[in-house]
Amino acid sequence: MLELVNHQNSIYSTTVPVALYVAGILGDPRTLPVISTYPTWRGESGCLRVILLDFLGGLADGVCDEELVAAAKHGYRLEDDPAVIAVLAARPAMFASVSRYLGDVDTQIRHSAVVAAGYLLDAPELLDYRPALLAPLRDVAVTSRDISQRARAERILLTWNEGPPVVIDSEMDAPPF
């Protein structure tokens, strides 16, 4: 469903209106039930709120500083694309919605929010929020049951020059399934 407006990091004119709508409905109680027919990118069923947070995080990842630099190395200036400019401008609004879930009691929701927020904090006007997100990112990188999510959190930390988190519990080296 959401891949229609952001498939493999392609950004379209419809991407930002959909992203802002998604950000706006995150708090709706109807986003909490588990959706068994629509697996998350992790291949498991999840609540719709996790799926929506993952969408916003993936969208922000596609326009993060690292991606802009990589595209420029290949002769593409993503920041000249009107659709990309719109996503870059929408990051503060998306962060405002995502940040409400940084302390959520549901671990999946909290971890998805932390990773999404980490990608959104490449926005120059949001850089001051990075120090507050360091501990939650380290927590996701060390404790998440999802190896992909742990890798994303670690990648954000490394991009911010914060180094990899120290793994204290050796049992977290593999997902506990």
List the SSEs and their pairings.
Blueprint: H1 15-25, E1 34-35, E2 46-47, H2 48-62, H3 65-73, H4 82-98, H5 107-120, H6 130-143, H7 147-159
Antiparallel strand pairs: 1-2
Question: Could you give the order of the helices and strands?
Answer: HEEHHHHHH
Major β-sheet strand ordering = 1-2
Estimated radius of gyration: 16 Å
List the total number of helices. Answer: 7
Counting helices, strands and paired strands, the structural category is mainly alpha
Approximate strand percentage: under 5%
What is the number of E strands? 2
Write down the overall geometry: globular
Mean pLDDT comes to 84
- Biggest sheet, open or closed, and with what strands and sense? 2 strands, antiparallel
Stretches where pLDDT is under 50 for at least 5 consecutive residues are 170-177
What percent of the residues sit in helical stretches (DSSP H or I)?
40-55%
Query: What is the rounded distance between the termini?
Result: 28 Å
